Amino acid sequence: MNKGIGHVNVGDAIDSFMLIKDVTKGVTSNGKPFLTLILRDSTGEIEAKLWDSTKEDEALFIPEQIIKLAGEINQFRGKSQLKIFSVRPAQLTDGVHISDFVEKAPVEKKVLTEKLTEAIFEMKNPTLQRIVRAFIKKYQEDLLNYPAAVKNHHEYVSGLAHHVVSMLQIAKELHKLYPQLNKDLLYAGVILHDIGKIRELSGVVTTSYTVEGKLLGHIPMMVEEIALMAKELQIEGEEEVLILQHLILSHHGKAEWGSPKPPQVREAELLHLIDLIDAKMNMLNRALDKVKPGEFTERLFAMDNRAFYKPLFEEG
Amino acid sequence: MNKGIGHVNVGDAIDSFMLIKDVTKGVTSNGKPFLTLILRDSTGEIEAKLWDSTKEDEALFIPEQIIKLAGEINQFRGKSQLKIFSVRPAQLTDGVHISDFVEKAPVEKKVLTEKLTEAIFEMKNPTLQRIVRAFIKKYQEDLLNYPAAVKNHHEYVSGLAHHVVSMLQIAKELHKLYPQLNKDLLYAGVILHDIGKIRELSGVVTTSYTVEGKLLGHIPMMVEEIALMAKELQIEGEEEVLILQHLILSHHGKAEWGSPKPPQVREAELLHLIDLIDAKMNMLNRALDKVKPGEFTERLFAMDNRAFYKPLFEEG
Amino acid sequence: MNKGIGHVNVGDAIDSFMLIKDVTKGVTSNGKPFLTLILRDSTGEIEAKLWDSTKEDEALFIPEQIIKLAGEINQFRGKSQLKIFSVRPAQLTDGVHISDFVEKAPVEKKVLTEKLTEAIFEMKNPTLQRIVRAFIKKYQEDLLNYPAAVKNHHEYVSGLAHHVVSMLQIAKELHKLYPQLNKDLLYAGVILHDIGKIRELSGVVTTSYTVEGKLLGHIPMMVEEIALMAKELQIEGEEEVLILQHLILSHHGKAEWGSPKPPQVREAELLHLIDLIDAKMNMLNRALDKVKPGEFTERLFAMDNRAFYKPLFEEG
Amino acid sequence: MNKGIGHVNVGDAIDSFMLIKDVTKGVTSNGKPFLTLILRDSTGEIEAKLWDSTKEDEALFIPEQIIKLAGEINQFRGKSQLKIFSVRPAQLTDGVHISDFVEKAPVEKKVLTEKLTEAIFEMKNPTLQRIVRAFIKKYQEDLLNYPAAVKNHHEYVSGLAHHVVSMLQIAKELHKLYPQLNKDLLYAGVILHDIGKIRELSGVVTTSYTVEGKLLGHIPMMVEEIALMAKELQIEGEEEVLILQHLILSHHGKAEWGSPKPPQVREAELLHLIDLIDAKMNMLNRALDKVKPGEFTERLFAMDNRAFYKPLFEEG
Amino acid sequence: MNKGIGHVNVGDAIDSFMLIKDVTKGVTSNGKPFLTLILRDSTGEIEAKLWDSTKEDEALFIPEQIIKLAGEINQFRGKSQLKIFSVRPAQLTDGVHISDFVEKAPVEKKVLTEKLTEAIFEMKNPTLQRIVRAFIKKYQEDLLNYPAAVKNHHEYVSGLAHHVVSMLQIAKELHKLYPQLNKDLLYAGVILHDIGKIRELSGVVTTSYTVEGKLLGHIPMMVEEIALMAKELQIEGEEEVLILQHLILSHHGKAEWGSPKPPQVREAELLHLIDLIDAKMNMLNRALDKVKPGEFTERLFAMDNRAFYKPLFEEG
Amino acid sequence: MNKGIGHVNVGDAIDSFMLIKDVTKGVTSNGKPFLTLILRDSTGEIEAKLWDSTKEDEALFIPEQIIKLAGEINQFRGKSQLKIFSVRPAQLTDGVHISDFVEKAPVEKKVLTEKLTEAIFEMKNPTLQRIVRAFIKKYQEDLLNYPAAVKNHHEYVSGLAHHVVSMLQIAKELHKLYPQLNKDLLYAGVILHDIGKIRELSGVVTTSYTVEGKLLGHIPMMVEEIALMAKELQIEGEEEVLILQHLILSHHGKAEWGSPKPPQVREAELLHLIDLIDAKMNMLNRALDKVKPGEFTERLFAMDNRAFYKPLFEEG
């Protein structure tokens, strides 16, 4: 199987390495134990059942374990399911690594770093530039690895940086069209707006919410981080700090969406809109990639549960 | 008075030509008749009272009449009001024209036409290009004169074309960032999305809603126009026609905002977002132009009644 | 089994012809294939499982195929399910037809046609009468066959015409009570309001939404059809055409319910209310027919998920 | 002035008797006292100012006083206002009565009584008939005099009975179309549904809400009254009593509209819809009577603030 | 098993008496019948499957039957499930009673009675005191046995009285802080506010909604009961009766939550808030009792589906 | 006039000192300038007009100036208005001070300080106690002077401390009833929850929102302050700090009300409810103080625009 689990069809035979993302133990109606495995490679996920599982199986097949398996794609309640013929844990000699099984941004980390550096270089306001540089330095490693979300959009390695770099490109072009915009402020908002996710989310591979992520959320956490950083840089009280905190605080656009204050500065409004565009295009492009012209995508929860149509005339 | 009515302060003396936009007759608490005039020049509007008005005054001072007046700026219930010292209708020899008193887009019609032509020239899909050309031909005159709305955004001469041309520029850049987008479809949607306003609105100078504008609205009217045009061009039934109708129908994004179907095609979603950005930036830029750094704008009804702050550090 | 699948109880033996409405393939926890069949006759639907299905079964038992089967009614997760003992496809010599297995309106097509003709005959406004006649002619066949919806109300053969004829009767009586109403306008609105469903829905037997149904919806499609028909009849621009389009456009009553403009003409408001009454009475009568006095119906999704009570004192 | 205050135009001279509905004392900017009078005759209402009012004026011109006045119709802030030239209280010898100045239902009390009696005569269920008869007897006088509301619909003498009788006619016809309906239950619901308004509203001429009307509302009050009446008639515990209480309780359709339980019985749902139709037709007919073809009515608050259009082609 | 079904873990062996709360019959994919039992003891509930059930089993194992069973705790789709090894109905000689298997308030009935009596003794307003005494007398038995709800809060034996007594304590303290409050009115409201639940709910052990509970609800039923009681006590028409009815009617706070009138009397507003506090604290305390420090509770439907965190530092 | 401006009636003569809260300049319909003054004493506010005002008047009568005036209470558009007979600025020799004209909490600052100290003394958790002490020290002066809001509740000198102290009393009693509560956490939340208002509001006398108050709001500002304080006290990272930040962040209860995270800790939920009770009781008590038994208060905007009734039987 070379094409990856995201691209298989019912009936395909499978013989490949995969990563266990999640495991649940169950009991059949006959009282026999089995394991439900969520498996993934870099192209997608699939559910698999390991029937008549033993205590040894339960100890071997745990999350973040890589396995080698042979099987076949079946269908169960309208969804694909992998039927396992044989399975074993991967060994050192197999030469496979967790990083081979997770999805990555379509742009290299090196390129992402260059684009970020370039943007910061364009900034002229010293206060804004200093804050941005300080955060980039503090979080460089994580910023280049973290996803931008647990699911829905940019939920892959380097997703956070990929999202920021795309938004910077939009910001740059909109600044040309609307020269009244303060480009430095907009860049600073774009680069920092989601950095709070590094504390809100648990990590890169099997991402969930941290306790402080649940109780505070990435928005207030980042407002707080800017205050602490401003103190450290001895620029607290400068108006740029307040306005930048406002951009972060308001970038979800509405109280119902998690911003206790709505945008009240021009660049804050635009930051919200650019964030929306890049998140939605990322979701749409990935969902439409999976269907053929003339078909609808599955319903996309984060797009108000809409299914999107791929026109036929695009084929030509 | 050279600076224009949009820029006067309380206490300023006025001696200039203005256009009557609206007139209402009233009676004071002492039973004396007066006229309330809404006057405008190319920079803004102001209310004025003509006390002790006569029957002759009522006949002379009617909407779309240009007048010469002298007076002073007062304040009434927190709003500026023009106190009239003397007033007379403009005469032929004054050499003034209605077009001198209406606001215009900041871009010349010639430039707008060029940009439109350029965009159509870029299009490759023959069906989409034919429909767009046909509508441009049918409505060329009005498209270059109509405002994009009665109020809120681009509510000036050539506002409709100005809005379209700005949106085309955004569309072009986003297509570079997201090459999966069908540029022809997006261009066709941008150019046609608001053309129904030409039937929805009554005209260029003192714009209101037509009866069919109120009963049908510009969105269903434009869906209908595309059907009639497709029939005329003998391309009815082609999928491009259906998808283009869908873009028009869904471009307000939600049922509550007037789109009976939400966007269900990638370019429809993006058309909605680009429309939002350009309308909001137009509103914000014009409102912020009127205030000084450190101040808030008046509340903007179409921006959820928010007031926007102009940071002080932008001054430097 | 003579009583029909809509009236069986758990434990009943079944030996009859049925129509396959839908088929899904599944795999048991032991890895054995089976088919889930949705079967129907003219009284209702039931799910059935065909265990250990073969490739031949998959080829034989497909949607719109009539089958002869013997089995028994069981219960599964609170719903009735048909356990199959034996099954075979119907043969020519069985003398059964698809039309025997679909639900039909409780009124004959002939009667429906007469009632429609009668109503049109009552109309005096020539413009409205011409449009109505033209549409009746264009869609006569489908109008008498189509359901009024995929589910919820009048979802049976001739449902659309049955709905229209009931509404005409209400319209007629309300016109007597409120003689200010324009009866011709109201009749035209009633007859045409849902004709767009003929393009929105895929057909009579196994009804689903068409692509244009999903992307445009029956309301804008019918507004468009009236424009095209008016052009064909050379009556475009007459006020009756606009007002009739408004009635169609607004007949769902609110933007959230799919009408981009709310009713703004007296007859439009009434059309909406009459539509509501007939749809609701149809749903309620059919749900209450299935329960005994003293019981509640199942929850009705299209009635805000309410269950309705059938009083005991009605028995007497 | 013969045409009535509801039909005057700006500039008309007035010389007639009118009823004072409300009076407020004010002080001009010069510190002089004046009275703002709300005056009415049987066709409508108008505001009038009595300038330089004396203590005697304040004592003479009080609510429910009839006055003779001469004056002229002016306009103030877009609304008609009566300018008073001379005014005096009516005298016994003038031969005018309060009942001459209030709007009445377009149907005579005698006819309303006959129609009610007829409907009760049609009822066959003895329990329902007994309750209805008992209430008719208890409230006969008020039922024939009370309005159906403070404003919006049927807000005139006998409005309550007029509303009930119109609804009975609709109920009768819908029972013919949907014979499954329990006509007796529906009739009982129609007749009793708003009788609680007799306790909720203060009276017939200058109607406002009573304290118990504000704290309990007519719906719970009527549920309570049925319980007390059932006890008196010794039929408490019969299911008809419960179901009838449910019809009253649920007739506003939704919790947000004042019904703590939504309709859960077929006739309850229909009662709500019939109530809606008659209230809306009453509002619409009266608003459209005041405008000419080609015009819109004023915005109707109780119709979601919509303005309604009167088509031109109705003129013919 | 001594620890009770609410505290077991997967893998635990069970050998104890339990009460059958609910039974459903099912058929496996192999066509074999089985019973799904909902079992409970005084600490909680669990689902159990009785495979290959016979007609005799169906007759023996019915709701409110006590059984003796041996088995083991398994997991099925993320929830605990009891796997039955052996089971038999309890016998007289087992010495077990239904009351052993239902949850009870943590306060004795005797104490609850004393606290109620004490509160009534504190009341000084004779009218309010008489009504309260009359209801306590009428419903004493049920008031001490009924739960306060079917689920969510105080859903155990004596739950209603426990809820009332807790609320009385809060009312007493708030009266000290805000002495303007009318304590008698507040006490009367607290004691009577949920007594309508005795008619709304079917009973103490396997509680569901009665037909009148569904069609009227406990709030209008209690308003009605107060009217009937006031008549019996010959105090109808006294203002205390009206205000008390208002407190009952408005105690859910908003129309959407079942109160057709919102609180419009100070004590009505406070009654609503005290009710909220005691219901929420009851839910929270019971949910948090089940988790360890550092964990979140399950999602609580009646708390807007929130999960609550139990801090670690509480351990110390 | 001894009774204070909050208690005057129309017709009362006034001769007293008052504080100017706000001034607006206007021009009458005759073009004459006047000043609209908002005046206050410790009991309330009133509007006054100073006709024919001079440049000198404009310079003398400015906000925060105390004046001596004689006049009379009139009525204008349903509201009381003060008619000025004579007016002069207060002089040093008059012996009046701004503090005489502002409303104060009904509890002395000394008592408020004692109660606060007492509560902190009760706390046992050292981390929570340290944070609370540090904030009390930092803001002691302002905490004892600031109002709790610009309007609606506790909008008077020491309002913030008065609100906190009342809430502490409720917290203490609820902790007795629900001993599972963590009293220290609840106390810390109560004391700190609104301290952010000291930065959100401009000051004590003529209070408005600061720029950072508008752009960030008191909730995120206080979350940030706790982070900075924790750093200063070297206790950052302790769980108490996180949980306390969560209490502050969530104390408005819902995203729509300004809390980006809802309460997810037991004490956070209770803090929200206690805040609600004390704010509402403060509003209700002050509004009901102004009306007589048998009357309704004015509509209270912050109580969903409800008017509250004061029962007659409270008089006895």
Automatic annotation (TrEMBL), chains A, B, C, D, E, F:
Keywords: Exonuclease, Hydrolase, Nuclease. The keyword Nuclease applies. It holds the Pfam family tRNA_anti-codon. Residues 163-280 form the HD domain. One of its GO terms (molecular function) is exonuclease activity. InterPro entries: HD/PDEase_dom (IPR003607), HD_domain (IPR006674), NA-bd_OB-fold (IPR012340), NA-bd_OB_tRNA (IPR004365), YhaM_exoribonuc/phosphodiest (IPR050798). It comes from the Bacteria. One of its GO terms (biological process) is rRNA 3'-end processing. The keyword Hydrolase applies. This is 3'-5' exoribonuclease YhaM.
